[in-house]
Every structure is written in C-alpha cells, then in structure tokens.
C-alpha cells in the first residue's frame, strides 16, 4: 500500500453513492437517490459542443476560463440582478470545483465554518480538507429556516465563513426573507465570507435572494453550476463569482488543480445560457407538489419543498434509524432513498424526484405499502 497523506484520513465514501449502489443489487429497485436530472442535455448545447470540437477547440483554455463564457456568464448574472463583469468570474469543474477552490483557497486551520444542517455532505468534506472547523447549525427546530438567535449563538470571533445553500439540498426549502435578514445581520461587516451555493436556483421559482444585496458583495462568493438547470451533470462545468482580486488569486489555485475546464465544453456552455430551463423547472415543480401530497397522505410530516428536486420527510415515528429505514425499504419495497444521517438530518430520508412521473408514482405506491408493514 502506498502511504497516504494525513488529509486523506478525513475522506469517507459518499453515503448517497453507497445507497445508489445498494439499490443496484435489488432487481427493479427504483432509485430516488441521486440528485441528477434524468433529462438529456438539450440538443442545441450538444450541437454547440460538437461544432466547437469540429472547429478545433481542442487546446488549453485560459486558467480563468474562456473570455466568451465569462462574458456570457456575467451578462446572464447581470440580467438576473447580480451585476458583475467577466473579471469577477472563474470557470470551474462544476460547483464542486468552485466549492473546492473556495474552501481550500480561503479557509485554514483554526477557521470556523458555519453550515446550516441538514446539508450537502461536500461542505464537511471540504472543511476537513482545508483543516477548518465544521460548525453545524441545526435548522430542524425552526422548520429548516434560520433565526437571528440561532446564528448569534453560533458565530464566534473565529467564524470565517457561512455556507448558504438555497434552494436547499436535502430539504427543498428556500430560505425566507427573515432567515436571510438574520444571515445578513450575522455576517455584515464581520470578516466572514458568505459562500452562496445556488445550484438549484434556476430550477426553482424566484424567491428571496441574498446574493442580490449589494452591501454584501465584498464578502460574497457565489458558486454556480451548469449541471442542474440544463441537465449537464456529466459535463462538469460551473463557475465562481466574487471580488475580482479574490477571483484572480483563486484562479491560481484552480490552475494548480485543473489548469482549465475543457475548451469545447466552455463554448457549449455559452449556448446553454441561451436555453430556457423553465420546462424542466416546471416538471420538477409538478413532481415536488405530487410527492409532497403523497407523503403527507401517508402520514409523514415533511417540510414543504419550494425549490430543487428533493423532499425530506420525517420517518422518526417508525423507530428505525434513517440508515436502517433506507436499507429495509430497498430490500423489502425496491425503492431507494438516502438516509437523512448522510446530511446531518437523522430521523428523515431524502427523496429525489429525478425520474419520470409514472416511475415516481410507482415508487410512492411501493413506499406506502412498505410503511404499512412497519
Ligand atoms: N451543491 C449542491 C447543493 C449540490 O446538491 C450539488 C450536486 N448534488 C453540487 C453543489 C455540485 O454540483 P456540480 O459539481 O455537479 O456542479
């Protein structure tokens, strides 16, 4: 065995992937595990990639990203009310690449990072890799929202970042005006970076949005992705927006990690920004409403999802851990969900609506029958 660096000790396999793999061992199991659109990437985007390849775009792109894509991203963001220019944009390998660059590039030993939980597990992994302290702020007692008192009790002089993921994975919640006001109060004027992970924004109805508050711009880093709105998870393209001087420094880290995102994919992403994601958003909205109604009628309390494509029902009344509940549901009902424990939300499971309506209905029928056996 080749020796590993100390930082490898902190890495554990993803629970989301583990439960997806377990589902594959049961024939006919319906997987409501991965947060991955089942739609195919729209044809004009694929055509643009092919045309770029044919045109010989097979060489390195600049480390910060193709100027044409950075300009298109800046125009896209400016249009939605987030004025920025190409110098403030770094093209990354998905939002994962953006988050990796932000955590490793801005946080270190002794720094505390507040993460409202339940949360996407990558944030904890990146805290470990950057040797920063992951400080969970449990939002369950406040209906998965944030309050001034809860934040005030969590911020310390060592707090250096706060992660804001809205619409939220795994709860589907969108933070309310009052949650966002509490966040603003906690961070404004303090040396705390607001790391906004908004990967589900374009797939969700417009809601309160702290990224649009100009007073926070100097301390805000926005992580975005092409993965979800345009069903491009396998393309691995996203971006980071922040103050130009910070982005210039973080470009050096991105350069050491990846040099640059593939050139022809970046050109195709310019085309993606011209595609309207609202038909897919409408499909997820319909499914969220359907699954919410079905779960409620099964007697499972569930926060009402307002965005993304997840629901996070409470299964605690069955007296099983979320891990055991999900294992049994795979074995006994051929339906796979992800235990809430993977997100720091024990007592819940995450149900992803990334499959066709008929499959979703069948999965919920099976789940309903399963609950009756418990
Ligand atoms: N942030 C959140 C909240 C996510 O759910 C995901 C993907 N599941 C990502 C970031 C990463 O997305 P990607 O790297 O595909 O852009």
What does it look like?
Helices cover 39% and strands 13% of the residues. The protein has 2 domains: 6-41 and 277-371, Aspartate Aminotransferase, domain 1 (Alpha-Beta Complex), CATH 3.90.1150; 59-272, Type I PLP-dependent aspartate aminotransferase-like (Major domain) (Aspartate Aminotransferase, domain 2), CATH 3.40.640. It has 374 residues and is an alpha/beta fold. The strands form 3 sheets. It has a 7-stranded mixed sheet, sandwiched between helices. A 3-stranded antiparallel sheet has the order 9-12-11. The radius of gyration is 21 Å and the shape is globular. The protein contains 12 helices and 12 strands. The N and C termini lie far apart (45 Å). The model has no long low-confidence stretch (mean pLDDT 96). 4'-deoxy-4'-aminopyridoxal-5'-phosphate (PMP) binds at residues 35, 94-96, 120, 165, 169, 197, 199, 225, 227, 233, 238.
Which radius of gyration do the C-alpha atoms yield? 21 Å
Average of pLDDT:
96
Just give the CATH class of the largest domain: Alpha Beta
CATH architecture classification name of the largest domain: 3-Layer(aba) Sandwich
Query: By helix and strand content, what is the structural category?
Result: alpha/beta
Number of strands: 12
Give, in order, the helices and strands. Answer: HEHHEHEHEHEHEEEHHHEHEEEH
CATH H level, superfamily name of the largest domain? Type I PLP-dependent aspartate aminotransferase-like (Major domain)
Approximate strand percentage: 5-15%
Major sheet characteristics: 7 strands, mixed
Strand order of the biggest β-sheet:
2-8-7-6-5-3-4
Number of domains: 2
The CATH topology annotation of the largest domain reads as Aspartate Aminotransferase, domain 2
